[in-house]
Structures are given as C-alpha cells and as structure tokens.
Amino acid sequence: MRSFFANLNPLVRGLAVVALIALVVVVLNLGNTVAALFLIARIAFPLAIAFFLFLLWRERRSDIETWSDRERRVFYAAVAVGIVAVLAYTYARLLGVQLAGFTALALVLTLGLCAWSAYRVWRDAHTYGN
Question: What is the 3-state secondary structure (H, E, C) of the chain?
Fold first, then answer.
C-alpha cells in the first residue's frame, strides 16, 4: 500500500488529500470550524509577513545604517506605507467594509510604488562610481 502512494503522481496525491479533508469536513459538519480557522488565518497571515520583514530588517540594519539620512527616510517610509496599506485593506475586509475594485487597484498601485521606491533607494545605495 505504501508503494502505491509513493509511486502516485504528486498532483493526484495532493488532490486526494484535499478531497479527503473536504469529505471529512462535509461528513462531520465542520463548516463553522473551518470558517473560524480561515478567519484566524486571515488575521495571522499579515502579522506573519510583518514578522518576517522585521527579521529581514534586523539582519540587514547594519547595511541600512551606512546609507544617507535621505535614503534611509525614503526606504523606511516606503516600507511603512506598504505595510499600512496592506493592513488597512486586510482589516477593512475583516470588519465587513465593502471594498470596490478601485480599492484593490489602489492597493496594487500603492504597493508597486512602495516597492519601486525601496528598490531605487537600495540600488542607489549599492551603486559605486558614476
């Protein structure tokens, strides 16, 4: 039996696991439990991303401290605006605020501009010569 699952295509094996989990949820009527777990995951996921970014910053802060004051301010402002935009969008949806498509477009454009600003500052700080 073990060799059967080991020789099975990974996609088919993954779909079988998902189907088995869905079957258990339907048979045991665990829809409310799954909804609660999904809500917890929607709250925890942005916090996990923020924690990862914090760890990344803590590892690279000695490099960032060598930048000029202007570069540092622009970099930190871009990161802060990006984090605030994502958290505002995520938690507005959790609070039941109806968001239109333009709100999602504004989020994507804001994140794009923040990423571009942070990248430009990082690239300028790491360009030597010229």
Answer: CHHHHHCCCHHHHHHHHHHHHHHHHHHCCCHHHHHHHHHHHHHHHHHHHHHHHHHHHHHHHHHHCCCCHHHHHHHHHHHHHHHHHHHHHHHHHHCCCCCCHHHHHHHHHHHHHHHHHHHHHHHHHCCCCC
